[in-house]
Amino acid sequence: MSRYRRKRTFKRLYAALAALAALLFYGYQEYLAPAPSMPDGTLSVHFIDVGQGDSILLTCDGRSALVDAGTAEGGDAVVEYLRSQQIQQLDYVFATHPHADHIGGMSKVLDTFGCQTFVMPDAAAYTRTFENMLQSVEACGAQAQTGQAGDSFSLGQARLQLLWPEEGYQDDNANNVSLVIRVEYGAYSFLLTGDAESSVEEQFVGSLEPVTVLKAGHHGSDTSSCAQLLDAADPQYCVISVGAGNSYGHPSASVLAELEARGCTVLRTDQRGNIVFTIKDGALAYATER
Length: 290
Description:
This protein has helices at 3-27, 29-32, 75-84, 100-103, 106-113, 128-140, 198-204, 227-233, 253-261, 269-272, and strands at residues 42-47, 56-60, 63-67, 90-94, 115-120, 143-146, 152-155, 158-164, 180-185, 188-192, 213-215, 237-240, 265-268, 275-280, 283-288. By secondary structure, the chain is of the alpha/beta class.
């Protein structure tokens, strides 16, 4: 083969390889997308021990959000805990549903810290506790809104997305209108389910991706944490917010068995006190009060 023909053949081969590379990159780039990078800040998720109730503090990049505030009796404990974390004002407050073990301490929290945005489902309770909460929301000047699936909120570099309730959903059982919140921070995620029961879990589970930490619904009751949810969420950790020696029998032995069978690490506030997860420098760690 002459030098000219060899040179022309190499040019054609090079052009073909370049075209193939371009096809692979532009035609299949969805398969070549890099993994999401980790944020460079710190996310902390505090499961506050409020006895038989729920209260969760999230802090990220100098911003803060509170999900529920325990019972009226636990309101002082929530306020003191927020003070211990140097909270001056809350950016967001989420009231998952209008039961007293989730909103009982809300008035004390709002009267002490206020908040910029207050989010609750489209549900009401004709109780003094609920009315007091609404009065405190108005008094602190918060922007109030009804939360529904698809709503998204930024907390520093963390993202909070509502998975439930769907727009227009109504249920006589207030547990089933619970705000279900997915918290994402780089490669890590938390699923906060309020008291949503299995019939609701089965409705949003189809779009659910695996999470790092699950907050068990309804204090570990067997009305929640159905097999479909646990299969889809596939959590590495499960936090159960529950009071010691409660009269409801929470958490359920069957739920604990399901979690154990899946190799999930269970952390209970009645046994461990306050439970705090921290994500920093791409690593997750947790600490407990006891």
